[in-house]
Structure formats: structure tokens, C-alpha cells
């Protein structure tokens, strides 16, 4: 019996952790010119604090001085990485801002635990690709319009009537993400949701979410939300 001489193609090797961090850093620096300086400041401040504490508290003990400085360096690295993560997320969202499904990406990957939302919209204008998404949390029901505010407001009003028909005592809030003045930037959607005053308990949130599933319909003709944390920096031409 003849042997199969064809080799099974190997799966492409995923980049290591350091290489991934370097790719994220390059992408962030490309879209956020202030990121490097903010990271440098975030690193330098804990180091300076560590040196000052070493001089004040170590009492000339070399081991104590080294430990305080080392603690400052480690704290600086942690601060720089936290800043990189936040600025990278903002830069990634900046790339997809204005595209259909961008709000869905935020609802899928960046919501806090007290809020739930679907990456698929509950209403879509097939001609303009304007869409309305729904999030449920302690603050009630939030209808997020994606696109022109003048067009999505009517869609939000239609969806609010549907919600109030089955949940008359639940507060419904509008948020608009789009090119118009007064709208919420894409990366600020989670923070805006967090500022809404809580009016429901956790069991009530679950009950509201279950009731709203009855309003769900078949998937709408709009792309799913892009995952900004899986985006790769574009290569220069």
C-alpha cells in the first residue's frame, strides 16, 4: 500500500504575547499620537514616587532603596500597560466608527456586568443602514441609535412603544451614536450606560430581559459587530 507522501499543512503559528503587545502598540501609536507620551508619564510617575519613598523611608538601607525603586518600576509598567489597553481600545473603535455594526461591537465586548446587549440590532433601515440596538441593565432599557440622529429617532420611538406595551413601568432611555452634534462617541457608550441612574434590581433586570426576548425577530440584514480587539494594524502601502 502506497504511503501518502503529502504533508498535512501546518496551522499558522500565532504570534507570541510580546509580539501581540508590540502590534497593539504600533496600531495605537498610529491612530493616537498622544498615547506614547501618556504611557511614558504613567510609567514615570510611579518610578519617581518609588525613588522619593526610598530616600525618605529606607534610611540609607541599600536593600530597602532597591526594593522601593523596584516597586516603583513595576507599578510604572503596570500603569503603562493599563493605559495602553485603554488607548488601544479607543484607537480600535476609532477605526470602525461610522461603519454598520460598530455599536454591536461595543455591546459585545465592552459592556459592564450590570448591562447586557446584543451585537445584532433590533431595527434596521435597509436603505440607509441606520440601526437601533437595545441594552438592558439596572438603568432600565436603553435604545442606541446608530447613524443619523434625525433618522434613528423615529426608529427609537417605534421601539420604545413596543417596549412600553409589555413593560409600561420600565424606563426607556435613548442614546445616539453618529455624525450629528450632541451624539455619544463610540468608545464612550459603555461609560454613558454606566452613568444612567439605577432603577431596577438584578432580578427585575433578568425579568425585563426575558420579556424583551418576545420582541426578538429573525436576524436583520446588517453585518455583525466588528471585534475591535482582533483587528490588526494596517500595513503601509
Automatic annotation (TrEMBL):
InterPro entries: DUF4191 (IPR025445). It holds the Pfam family DUF4191. It comes from the Bacteria. Residues 217-237 are annotated as: Disordered. The chain crosses the membrane at residues 35-59, 65-84. The keyword Transmembrane helix applies. Keywords: Membrane, Transmembrane, Transmembrane helix. This is DUF4191 domain-containing protein. The lineage of its organism: Bacteria, Bacillati, Actinomycetota, Actinomycetes, Micrococcales.
Amino acid at each position: 500500500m502506497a504511503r501518502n507522501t503529502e504533508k498535512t499543512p501546518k496551522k499558522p503559528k500565532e504570534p507570541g504575547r510580546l509580539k501581540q503587545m508590540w502590534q497593539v502598540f504600533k496600531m495605537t501609536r498610529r491612530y493616537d499620537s498622544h498615547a506614547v507620551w501618556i504611557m511614558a508619564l504613567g510609567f514615570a510617575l510611579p518610578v519617581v514616587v518609588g525613588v522619593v519613598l526610598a530616600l525618605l523611608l529606607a534610611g540609607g538601607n541599600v536593600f530597602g532603596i532597591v526594593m522601593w525603586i523596584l516597586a516603583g518600576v513595576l507599578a510604572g509598567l503596570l500603569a503603562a500597560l493599563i493605559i495602553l489597553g485603554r488607548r488601544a481600545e479607543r484607537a480600535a473603535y476609532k477605526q470602525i466608527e461610522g461603519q454598520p455594526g460598530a455599536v454591536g461591537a461595543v455591546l459585545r465586548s465592552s459592556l459592564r456586568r450590570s448591562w447586557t446587549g446584543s451585537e445584532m440590532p433590533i431595527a434596521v433601515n435597509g436603505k440607509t443602514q441606520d440601526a437601533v440596538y437595545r441594552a438592558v441593565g439596572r438603568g432600565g432599557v436603553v435604545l442606541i441609535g446608530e447613524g443619523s440622529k434625525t433618522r434613528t429617532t423615529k426608529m427609537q420611538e417605534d421601539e420604545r412603544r413596543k417596549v412600553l406595551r409589555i413593560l409600561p413601568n420600565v424606563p426607556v432611555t435613548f442614546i445616539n451614536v453618529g455624525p450629528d452634534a450632541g451624539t455619544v462617541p463610540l468608545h464612550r457608550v459603555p461609560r454613558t450606560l454606566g452613568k444612567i441612574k439605577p432603577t431596577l434590581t438584578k432580578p427585575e433586570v433578568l425579568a425585563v430581559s426575558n420579556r424583551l426576548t418576545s420582541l426578538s425577530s429573525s436576524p436583520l440584514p446588517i453585518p455583525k459587530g466588528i471585534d475591535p480587539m482582533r483587528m490588526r494594524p494596517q500595513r503601509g502601502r
